[in-house]
Design a protein that fits this description.
This protein has helices spanning 12-15, 88-102, 165-175, 181-210; strands spanning 3-8, 20-25, 28-35, 38-40, 55-57, 60-69, 107-110, 115-125, 135-144. With 211 residues, it is an alpha+beta fold. It has two domains: 3-144, Elongation Factor Tu (Ef-tu), domain 3, CATH 2.40.30; 166-210.
Length: 211
């Protein structure tokens, strides 16, 4: 998969075969710096413990100083900016860099050390001198942002709702012939009452016969 935007500032001949929708080459790169920083805790760290939580990696930063002219010294394969010597070549390069900066576009910075993806322009400085009508010099501060990838998982939850007590009672009484607790107690009371009456009558009969 081709990159969307390549900004190639070093080893340009070696890197010109890279595929991209937009490929920008500096005619001359006068200076480039790579800055890799960490934030380190100022508090004491327990000896022998993992210190990864006490060091935070910062975004990589780069500073590129270069020159673009209307008459390029070298032609690079696939360059978005042409080499026909027209006066707009310098303007075309400026327009592309300003578009990347203004539209907050990400690009891949290619240097002599590595290719750094997901870069953005922090600062774009173009000093203009009246005696340099056919070229412009620039300083670009670049920062590589760190990206993370997320995934979404769809979870289907079954209906586990519990019916209300009243609803359960209504449902139970509606279609079930099983006697309720109240009915059982009432029936038991009737049985005990009948048994009591029976025993009372028996005692009375026994007493009368003895007399």
């Amino acid at each position: 998969m081709a990159d969307s935007i390549l900004f190639i500032v070093q080893n340009k001949k070696r890197e010109e075969s890279r595929e991209a929708e937009i490929k920008l080459f500096t005619d001359v790169t006068t200076s480039i710096s790579h800055q890799f920083d960490n934030d380190v805790t100022a508090f004491p760290v327990e000896r022998g413990k993992d210190i990864t939580d006490n060091i935070r990696t910062r975004n990589n930063r780069f500073t590129v100083e270069g020159v673009v002219t209307d008459y390029a010294l070298t032609q690079y394969k696939g360059s978005t900016v042409g080499y026909d010597g027209i006066a707009s070549r310098r303007q075309d390069m400026y327009t592309h860099l300003m578009k990347i900066r203004n539209n907050k576009l990400k690009f891949t910075l290619v240097t002599g050390l590595d290719a750094y993806e997901s870069c953005v322009i922090r600062s774009f400085s173009v000093p203009v001198a009246p005696d340099n009508a056919s070229l412009f010099t620039f300083t670009i501060e670049i920062e590589q942002i760190r990206e993370v990838y997320t995934s979404t998982v769809n979870i289907v939850v079954a209906d586990v709702s519990v019916p209300k007590k009243d609803d359960a009672a209504k449902t139970s009484n509606k279609g079930d012939n099983t006697p309720s607790e109240t009915d059982l107690i009432s029936d038991l009371g009737d049985v005990l009452s009948g048994y009591y009456d029976f025993m009372t009558d028996k005692d009375l009969t026994t007493t009368t016969g003895d007399e």
